[in-house]
C-alpha cells in the first residue's frame, strides 16, 4: 500500500513567454509539471506575457490543474525576482523552490531535493536553506538529456550531468555553479526578508543579493576573503568573493550527486529581460544591507484574511526588529501612531479602509499612543499589543490587553490540569532556566549565593531580596498599584527595614541594571551592581518587587514572591500581594508556601501557549538623565504566538560547519581558509558559525547611515575608482585617512571619529 506524501515544496515557475516563440517554453513547463512528485505543488507566475500568447498558459493550467497567477506589468521590464516573490506570496506549502522553466531533474532527483530539506530539519527550521548546484548544458547534450528523460531514464541522465561536471567534460556543460538560483527555503522566512530586491530588473544577480540576506541569518562558515568581490567565475578553487561563499550552501548537495540541469536555449533578445546593470551594483547592495543603510519591506501574505494597521514608523529599529512578525499580520500597512491627530481619525481609517485589527507597540509607551489604544479597545476593534516579555528572549503579542490589565493572564486561561507530556516539558524548561546564566538585562558572572552572603557580611540572617525597577518603565508608572510608583516603593522598603528584626533579616537591594544611580533606601544593603540576579534569587528567602520580571523568574523557580503592585503573574498559589506597608511587613516575616501545581500550570501556559521567543540584537541610547535605553534592532524569532490561529514555529538558527569538514576541502581546508581570512579561529568556532571579513568597517550611527549613499557621488567626482572602493568599505576610515584637512573636517562632521 503506497503512502500519499503531503506536499512540502512549491515549485515557483516565473515566466514571460516571448512574443515570438523562440523555443519550446510551453513544453518545458509541462515537462516539469509531469515530472515533479506529489511532494511538490507547481505554481506558474505569468509576469507580463503578451496578450497573443496568454492562452497557452491558461491551457496548461486547465489541462494540469496547476495554479496560475498573472501579474499585469504593462510595459515594465521583466523582473524574475518580483515574479518569484509573487509566487512566494501565493504558495501554499511551507517550503518553496525557485524553478525557472529551463531547469529540470528526474523524478528521483526531485525526491532527493525533498530529502535534502529533511536532512536540514526543514521546514521546522525556517532559517535553514540551500541552493541546488546547476550545470548549463550544451545544445547537443540537452537533446541527449531530454531523450533519456522522456524514455524513463532520467535518473541516469542526472548521473551523466553530475559525472560530466566531475570530469569537467565540456561536451556535457558550458559552465556550472554550486549554487544556482534554484533556492530551496522557507516560505515564511522569504516573506519576512522581503523577497528579492525590486531594484534588480530582468535576470541576473538578483539571486546573489537574496542569498546575501539569507546567509546573514545562517552562517555555514567564515566569510571569504574580499567577500563583496564579484569574481564572475563559477569555478570554486579559492575561498574568495561572495560566489565562493554561496557555494557552501550547495556544494554538499553536489557531493551527494545532485545537479539540476539548465537546458540550453537560444538567447532571448527581449528588452529588459537581462538585467545588464545588476552585476555591477550587486556588491554595493550587499554592503548597504550590512551597514543598515537599506532595508527591504517584508512581503504580505496573500493567503491571509487579516489586514493589519501597524502603528510603527517604517525603517525604524522597532520595524526592523519586527521583520519576522510582519508575514503573520497578513496584509498590512505601516503608519506611525504620531500621524493620527486623535482617536477619531484612527478609528475612522480602520473602518474606511477595512482593517481587521490594529498593531500597537507598547500601548502605554506615551500618552498619545495610550489614548489611541484605549479608544480602539473601547470601540471593540481587534488589536495587538506588543512588548518584551518577562522571561529572557520572550515577547508577547497580546490581543486582550496589556500586562496587569490584560485578560490573557486570567486564571481561566491557564489553570487547567496538565497531562504528563506538558508537565515534563515544563519541568525541563524550568530546570534549564535555573541552570543557565541568561538574563533580561546585562549581569555579571554567576558566583553563587554563598559568595554573595560572605561579600555582603550577611552572616546567617534570612535575606529579603528587593529587585528595584526603573521609575520610567511602563509597568512601574501605570501598574504600581497601591504603592504608587518606584519612589514610594523605595519608601515602603525603608519602612520594612526599620521594622523587621535586624538580627533575623537582611534587606538586600539591587539597582536596576539600566539605571546609573542607586536610590537612598535606609537600612538596606545594596548588592554589587553587576551581581547576577539568579544568585540573588537563590540567596533570598523571599523576593520583593512592584511587578518586576525578576518576580516572575523567582516565582517560576519556587521562591515566595511578594508583589506590591499589579503584576500579571500575581495569582493565589503563585505569589503574594501586599496592598499596604503593613501587609508587606507581615508577609515578609511569615512562613509563605506556594503551590507547585499552580506554578507549573501558569508557566506551561506562559512558555508554550502565550509567549513568543526570539533573540534580539540591541542598540543602546543614553537618556538625558544618564540612564541607558535599549532598543531591539533585529530579533531572530524561534516562535511567534498570538497572531495566527496556531503558533508559528521557526526553530533555531542552524549551527555552522567545522572547518575540518569535507565541505571545505574544495578550498584547501582549514589552513587555506584561515590563511585567506588572516584570522585564526578560536577552538569553539569549530561548532559555531563565524563571520569574518577582510576589513572591519567602523560602525555608523543609525541616524547618519542614510548619508552614506548621498555622499558617494561626491567621492566619485572628487576622487578616483579606488577612492570610491575605499569609501564603500569604510566611510569613517576613508575620511579619517585623508590628508587634506578641509576634507577631513567635512568627513568628521558627517561621520564623527
Please give a structural write-up:
By secondary structure, this protein is α/β, with parallel strands linked by helices. The chain folds into 4 domains: 9-290, Alpha-Beta Complex (Spore Coat Polysaccharide Biosynthesis Protein SpsA, Chain A); 307-389 and 614-649, Rossmann fold, CATH 3.40.50; 420-610, Rossmann fold (3-Layer(aba) Sandwich); 707-750, no CATH class. It is 36% helix and 15% strand. It has 28 helices and 24 strands. The chain has an 8-stranded mixed sheet. A hairpin with a 5-residue loop joins strand 14 (383-388) and strand 15. Helix 17 (449-455) packs across helix 20. It is elongated and about 95 Å long. The model is unreliable at 678-696 (pLDDT under 50).
Categorize the overall geometry: elongated
Major sheet details:
8 strands, mixed
Beta content: 15-25%
Number of domains: 4
Rg, rounded, reads 30 Å
**Number of strand segments:** 24
Helix content: 25-40%
Mean pLDDT across every amino acid position:
89
CATH class of the largest domain: Alpha Beta
State the end-to-end CA separation: 71 Å
Structural class: alpha/beta
Which assembly state applies to the chains in this document?
A: single chain
CATH topology of the largest domain: Spore Coat Polysaccharide Biosynthesis Protein SpsA, Chain A
Q: Can you name the CATH architecture of the largest domain?
A: Alpha-Beta Complex
User: CATH H level of the largest domain: which superfamily?
Assistant: Spore Coat Polysaccharide Biosynthesis Protein SpsA, Chain A
Number of helices: 28
Amino acid at each position: 500500500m503506497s503512502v500519499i506524501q503531503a506536499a512540502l515544496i512549491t515549485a515557483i515557475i516565473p515566466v514571460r513567454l516571448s512574443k515570438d516563440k523562440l523555443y519550446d517554453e510551453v513544453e518545458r513547463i509541462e515537462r516539469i509539471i509531469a515530472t515533479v512528485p506529489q511532494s511538490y505543488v507547481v505554481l506558474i507566475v505569468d509576469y507580463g506575457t503578451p496578450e497573443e500568447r496568454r492562452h497557452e498558459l491558461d491551457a496548461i493550467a486547465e489541462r494540469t490543474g496547476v495554479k496560475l497567477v498573472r501579474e499585469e506589468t504593462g510595459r515594465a521590464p521583466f523582473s524574475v525576482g518580483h515574479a518569484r516573490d509573487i509566487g512566494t506570496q501565493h504558495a501554499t506549502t511551507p517550503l518553496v523552490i525557485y524553478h525557472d522553466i529551463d531547469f529540470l531533474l528526474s523524478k528521483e532527483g526531485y525526491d532527493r531535493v525533498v530529502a535534502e530539506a529533511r536532512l536540514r530539519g526543514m521546514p521546522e527550521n525556517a532559517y535553514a536553506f540551500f541552493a541546488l548546484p546547476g550545470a548549463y548544458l550544451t545544445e547537443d547534450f540537452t537533446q541527449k538529456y531530454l531523450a533519456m528523460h522522456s524514455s524513463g531514464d532520467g535518473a541516469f541522465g542526472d548521473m551523466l550531468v553530475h559525472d560530466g561536471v566531475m570530469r569537467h567534460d565540456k561536451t556535457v556543460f558550458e559552465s556550472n555553479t554550486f549554487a544556482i538560483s534554484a533556492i530551496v527555503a522557507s516560505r515564511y522566512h522569504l516573506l519576512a526578508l522581503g523577497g528579492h530586491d525590486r531594484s534588480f530588473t530582468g535576470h541576473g544577480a538578483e539571486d546573489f543579493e537574496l542569498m546575501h540576506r539569507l546567509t546573514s541569518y545562517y552562517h555555514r562558515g567564515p566569510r571569504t576573503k574580499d567577500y563583496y568581490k564579484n569574481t564572475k567565475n563559477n569555478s570554486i578553487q579559492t575561498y574568495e568573493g561572495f560566489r565562493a561563499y554561496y557555494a557552501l550552501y550547495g556544494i554538499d548537495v553536489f557531493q551527494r550527486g545532485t545537479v539540476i540541469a539548465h537546458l540550453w536555449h537560444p538567447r532571448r533578445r527581449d528588452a529588459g529581460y537581462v538585467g545588464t546593470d545588476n552585476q555591477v551594483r550587486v556588491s554595493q547592495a550587499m554592503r548597504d544591507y550590512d551597514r543598515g543603510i537599506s532595508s527591504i519591506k517584508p512581503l504580505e501574505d496573500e493567503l491571509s484574511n487579516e489586514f493589519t494597521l501597524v502603528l510603527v514608523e517604517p525603517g525604524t529599529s522597532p520595524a526592523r526588529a519586527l521583520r519576522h512578525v510582519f508575514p503573520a499580520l497578513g496584509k498590512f500597512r505601516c503608519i506611525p501612531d504620531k500621524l493620527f491627530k486623535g482617536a477619531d481619525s484612527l478609528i475612522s481609517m480602520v473602518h474606511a479602509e477595512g482593517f481587521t485589527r490594529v498593531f500597537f507597540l507598547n500601548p502605554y509607551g506615551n500618552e498619545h499612543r495610550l489614548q489611541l489604544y484605549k479608544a480602539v479597545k473601547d470601540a471593540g476593534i481587534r488589536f495587538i499589543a506588543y512588548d518584551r516579555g518577562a522571561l529572557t528572549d520572550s515577547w508577547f503579542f497580546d490581543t486582550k490587553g496589556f500586562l496587569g490589565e490584560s485578560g490573557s493572564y486570567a486564571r481561566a486561561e491557564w489553570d487547567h490540569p496538565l497531562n504528563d507530556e506538558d508537565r515534563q516539558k515544563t519541568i525541563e524548561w524550568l530546570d534549564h532556566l535555573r541552570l543557565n546564566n541568561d538574563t533580561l538585562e546585562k549581569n555579571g558572572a554567576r558566583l553563587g549565593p554563598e559568595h554573595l552572603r560572605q561579600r555582603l557580611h550577611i552572616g546567617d540572617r534570612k535575606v529579603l531580596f528587593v529587585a528595584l525597577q526603573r521609575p520610567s518603565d511602563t509597568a512601574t508608572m501605570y501598574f504600581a498599584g497601591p504603592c504608587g510608583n518606584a519612589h514610594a516603593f523605595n519608601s515602603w522598603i525603608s519602612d520594612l527595614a526599620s521594622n523587621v528584626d535586624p538580627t533575623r533579616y537582611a534587606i538586600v537591594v539591587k539597582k536596576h541594571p539600566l539605571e546609573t544611580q542607586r536610590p537612598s533606601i535606609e537600612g538596606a544593603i545594596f548588592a554589587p551592581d553587576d551581581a547576577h540576579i539568579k544568585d540573588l534569587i537563590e540567596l533570598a528567602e523571599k523576593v520583593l518587587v512592584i511587578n518586576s520580571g525578576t518576580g516572575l523568574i523567582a516565582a517560576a523557580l519556587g521562591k515566595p514572591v511578594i508583589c506590591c503592585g499589579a503584576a500579571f503573574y500575581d495569582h493565589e498559589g503563585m505569589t503574594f500581594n501586599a496592598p499596604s506597608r503593613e501587609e508587606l511587613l507581615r508577609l515578609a516575616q511569615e512562613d509563605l508556601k506556594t503551590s507547585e501545581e499552580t506554578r507549573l500550570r501558569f508557566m506551561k501556559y506562559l512558555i508554550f501557549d502565550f509567549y513568543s521567543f526570539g533573540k534580539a540584537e540591541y542598540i543602546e541610547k543614553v537618556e538625558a538623565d544618564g540612564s541607558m535605553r535599549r532598543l531591539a534592532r533585529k530579533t531572530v524569532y524561534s516562535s511567534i504566538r498570538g497572531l495566527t490561529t496556531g503558533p508559528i514555529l521557526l526553530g533555531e538558527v542552524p549551527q555552522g560547519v567545522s572547518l575540518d569538514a569535507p565541505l571545505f576541502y574544495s578550498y584547501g581546508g582549514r589552513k587555506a581558509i584561515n590563511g585567506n581570512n588572516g584570522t585564526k579561529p578560536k577552538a569553539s568556532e569549530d561548532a559555531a558559525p563565524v563571520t569574518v571579513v577582510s576589513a572591519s568597517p567602523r560602525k555608523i550611527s543609525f541616524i547618519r547611515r542614510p548619508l552614506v549613499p548621498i555622499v558617494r557621488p561626491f567621492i566619485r567626482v572628487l576622487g578616483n575608482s579606488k577612492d570610491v572602493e575605499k569609501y564603500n568599505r569604510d566611510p569613517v576610515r576613508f575620511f579619517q585617512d585623508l590628508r587634506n584637512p578641509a576634507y577631513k573636517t567635512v568627513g568628521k562632521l558627517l561621520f564623527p571619529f
